[in-house]
Amino acid sequence: MKSINILAGGPENNFPKNFADFLTDENEWIGVDAGAFYLLKHGVKDITAIGDFDSLTREELFFVKDKVDPKHFSQAKPEKDFTDTELALRWIEEKLDYRKYDSINIFGATGSRLDHEFNNFLNLFLPEYKNILDKVEIFDLENVVSFFNPGDYLLENKYKKKYLGFVVLNNIVNFSIHGAKYDLSNFSSKIDRVFASNEFLDNQNIEIHFDAGNVMAIYS
């Protein structure tokens, strides 16, 4: 499966336990701010480096610029309208043929500033990311988060987690869960809602459906 991997500047102790496995694959890597320095120091080559790089020292920034092809280096001003992670997503939409990729995996997006966490989750639902939304997954030490536009989906316990929670957003219409420990039929609400602590049954797949709004599925 071909993926784009994004490493943001979140704390290393919140990376998934198998993060080293992602580093050794041959998929596309985008290092966001301090994430670029981390990737290069850990032997990942041919990366794209994006951000204002305000968390790097002068020496670290020089190291990144020296190792990255200028065509794949983009430095923004600290005073900007978008976070560094959003700049990476915009790079994917503008510079890459995202249709060729099965997934967009984001690491280092949680575990530090809470405003950045909310931004990394909720701003994905802006119209400009609609085409890539269902390709995005956010990974950290305990969780994997997937994002969905309206439709029908079959979820499998591919991450071997105990719990599967759902966050319904943006005027959800007819949200249904079938095949889980706790099923749900045709839930609609103008108020965002969390359905926490659901579970897979004997590793059978879970079906979800909704007609409008958005959903986050949280494996934990």
How would you characterize this protein structure?
The structure is a single chain. The protein is α/β, with parallel strands linked by helices and 220 residues long. It has two domains: 1-141, Rossmann fold; 149-220, Thiamin pyrophosphokinase, thiamin-binding domain (Jelly Rolls, Sandwich), CATH 2.60.120.320. It has five helices and 13 strands. Strands 1, 2, 3, 4, 5, 6, 7, 8, 9, 10, 11, 12 and 13 form a 13-stranded mixed sheet that branches.
Give short descriptive properties of this protein:
220 residues, Jelly Rolls, 13-stranded mixed β-sheet, 13 strands, elongated, Thiamine diphosphokinase, thiamine diphosphokinase activity, kinase, nucleotide-binding
What would the principal axes of the Cα set say about the shape? elongated
Radius of gyration: 18 Å
The number of helical runs is 5
Number of domain modules: 2
Helix content: 10-25%
Measured by DSSP, the beta-strand proportion falls in 35-45%
Instruction: Assign the structural class, choosing from mainly alpha, mainly beta, alpha/beta, alpha+beta, or little secondary structure.
Output: alpha/beta
Report the strand count.
Answer: 13
Q: Mean pLDDT, nearest integer?
A: 94
Helix and strand succession?
A: EHEHEHEHEHEEEEEEEE
CATH topology of the largest domain: Rossmann fold
The name of the CATH architecture of the largest domain is: 3-Layer(aba) Sandwich
CATH class of the largest domain: Alpha Beta
Largest β-sheet summary: 13 strands, mixed
Protein name: Thiamine diphosphokinase
Keywords: ATP-binding, Kinase, Nucleotide-binding, Transferase
GO molecular function: ATP binding; kinase activity; thiamine binding; thiamine diphosphokinase activity
EC number: 2.7.6.2
